[in-house]
User: Fold these one by one.
Assistant:
Number 1:
Amino acid sequence: MTEHAGIEDLVDDLVTANHILYNEGVVDGFGHVSARHPTRPDCFLLSRSIAPGKVRAEDIMAFDFDGNPLDARGRKPYLERFIHSEVYRVRADVQSVVHNHSPAVIPFGVTAAKLRPISHMSGFLAGGVPNFEIRDAGGPATDMLIRTPQLGVAFARTMGRAAFALMRGHGAVAVGDSIRQVVYRAVYAEQNARLQAEALRLVAATGGGEINFLNDAEAAGADAANYANMDRPWELWKMRVAKPT
Ligand code: MN
């Protein structure tokens, strides 16, 4: 495969990921997904500032880790690109990043309820989900957006080695070693949040008790089993967003 074909295939997958995340309810008019540049590991690919469901190949821009576009050509970048740049800078294992505001995850960033793996599809949530408090880095009067490199650094520090992190009063970030894996994680983190809230309601309705979460060994085992089948949900989600030919 030539270098040129390599980046075209990655851009195609990134466009598809934008459409899947919209179709699966992870992003709406807001949110974004990026991929590390295939031949320049100190750069990443991210759409210009438009709704993910509308992204096309010509909207994909390349950025360095300071968030500067390499070739803007009049295209306006997302304000929150520093989430992506600062995570790539410190996480050599990360090839793709999703930032979203999907509704079910938000309550877990603003209450004492901890997001934990409730089913075998979300073992990647084991080990604790960090929650970024923007007031710690930006003070009490931000607009909640990670709009500077400094806030991006603070977010990446909070995220640490995690697969998924919450942002208090804002949303979440998923990372992965491929576009397919990060889409999987973003979709199933949202599903886990819905299921966990439902389980909490059942616990309350049935007079108490505790949710029986996956233990760490089960979470790791289930995550490895699903990792071997990462193409299966991707192909299905891709089929749903395919244009008729
Ligand atoms: Mn945001």
Note: The radius of gyration is 18 Å.
Number 2:
Amino acid sequence: MTVTPLIIDTDPGVDDAFAIALATASPEVYLCAVTTVFGNVGVEQTTSNALRLLALCDREDVPVARGADRPLVYPHPFRATYVHGSDGLGGRREMLPALSREPDPADAVDLMAGVLRATEQPVTIAAIGPLTNIALLLATHPSLKPKIGRLVVMGGTLGGGNVTATAEFNVWSDPEAARRVLTEEDLPTVLVPMDLTMRCSVDKDWLAQLESAGPVGSTLVSLTPTYLDHYRRVLGREALVLHDAVALAEAVRPGILDCTPLPVDVECSLGPARGVVLADRRAISPDKPTTGRLVELAMDADLAELHRFLLDRLGR
Ligand code: BDR
Ligand code: CA
């Protein structure tokens, strides 16, 4: 089996925690680096969360480098503490091993560039936070683009949003960066929007099975009470949404999500549609004007298979 090198760019985040654990439990990939970005909470906190999550997964060998503390162009104070708690981990970070090391002295872009430069094989990058670090990487190291085999992004929505009526959190948090990454670059990209991740929610029974499967699974479940409260209000039932773990499933097992190539653009106006991802779902024809570039949009999945896959891996 070919083992694909993987970088995760992340803002942990409860669902990011599940995503990182999934990567460390997946033999199809070798996790080479974790880079952090502001998002669910500030970058200092996302960085220490990433370090502690890797300790939980027994992967303290993976370098963690701190990245952007704010968006590229328009700073804003909005963080998702109402979803992920003030520490990003549902107020439960003490459930994780104590901090036992410092982040890498390199910053996020330098660490990613170093991994890309040093690795013979094409690298998969899973971007599960605002796209600021990835935009900076592509802008400052264009010669390394061919080393990126696949970029898998959790972000956007084709229907209603979560952070505004129309926009999804990761894209809305830095729309200029998202536009650079999603529409101006030409690397193979899979976009996993929240329409699909919402449909992939897991229920109490799934959580109970994970809790009893082993120590990593039970620690992950211990981070979820506040997050579950949020999704109980949003969904009207006992379920939670593991957005980033769904994207990671596609990063480690390409094809587990059903993707359709569609032209995608990002709205960067400062009005109410800021951060909207526009995916042109009309049949493509030369006589219809369109905008953006083709990305693989994850539109569907075999939900039962995906739930089994996540449980099997996270329960190891
Ligand atoms: C995305 O926003 C964050 O709150 C989650 O971690 C996920 O990456 C979902 O919109
Ligand atoms: Ca995230």
Note: The chain is about 40% helix and 20% strand.
